[in-house]
Design goal:
Length: about 80
């Protein structure tokens, strides 16, 4: 997912020991007001490349990223088990 100049990202971790950063995306209007983007499940392993769960899992992951993601997110690993 490419970053745009009119979009801002906030990175946070659900648990301190997690390796994955959750990402909140905000669209900034011409007045500088940031509104959260709804419906996306974004995350990053390095704060550089941002993944969208709905579009990228597991096809755009390295084997190491998939292993980390599945360990930290067993619900989603089970939910998408038919994609593997």
């Amino acid at each position: 997912m490419e970053k745009s100049s009119d979009v801002q990202y906030e990175f946070y971790k659900e648990n301190k020991k997690d390796k994955i950063w959750r990402v909140e995306e905000y669209e900034v209007d011409e007045n500088g007001v940031a509104e959260p983007t709804i419906g996306l499940l974004l995350f990053s392993f390095d704060k550089e490349k941002i993944y969208n769960l709905w579009e990228d899992y597991p096809w755009k992951f390295t084997p190491e990223e998939k292993e980390i993601f599945d360990k930290e997110n067993p619900y989603w690993a089970e939910f998408f088990k038919d994609r593997s």
